[in-house]
Fold:
Amino acid sequence: MTVEELTKQLNLTCMGGKKGLGKEVTGVYIGDLLSLVMARSKEGDLWLTVQGHINTLAVAALVNMPAILLVEGILPTDEMIQKAEEEAIVLLTTHKTAYEMACALNKWL
Amino acid sequence: MTLCFTVDGNDFLRAGEASAVVKRTLKQLGLESSLVRKIAIAMYEAEMNMVLHANGGNIKVTLSDTYLTIQMMDTGPGIKDIDLAMQEGYSTANQKIRELGFGAGMGLPNMKRYSDELKIKTVVGVGTEVLLGFKL
Structure:
């Protein structure tokens, strides 16, 4: 499923990186410790986190994740949005928790 | 091919840029993506350590047909106990760093896991030199 389709189905807000909306999402990873995320996530994962800063984007770019979903109403910093545009990594937000989103994502992936 | 970078220890916004450049370069050279990922993760961990703990430093990346070497030198505080630092979960990161998602105590373990060679020379109060090697 593409990032764009998931964004619509789950009613997510896109804050940046729209160029990457056509990328495929093949899995989900949830985590806030960047080293663990790097070690355990897989290419193609949608990353659910509360880390709304530029270093999160750098990690997503390094491991080829198509999109980051900031949960619980966390908003990205301006630098993160700018970097998302540069890297074409979609930056999504929701007020729901990671658990609620994981349950919802399970129906689609 | 040799690439050199200076890592600014105070610039959190640009932290990781050297790793991103190396990743892009290796991708353009046609290296297998799983190998590029391993190199990028190990180098990013080392680069972030320089920013978070050592006030920056210098990186030299040397690429031959069969081997990639990443040499990282800093003049930071040094590592007091390398065996302890190699243990997963051990970290000296402060609260501010941890709140950003760093300081999981996975930096050195990840560097070891993803590289074929890891050498660390460190002197407390003088600095640290990390060498990462990868078979291509």
About this structure: Helices of chain B lie at 17-28, 33-53, 82-85, 95-99, 107-114. Residues 41 and 126 of chain B are 26 Å apart (CA to CA).
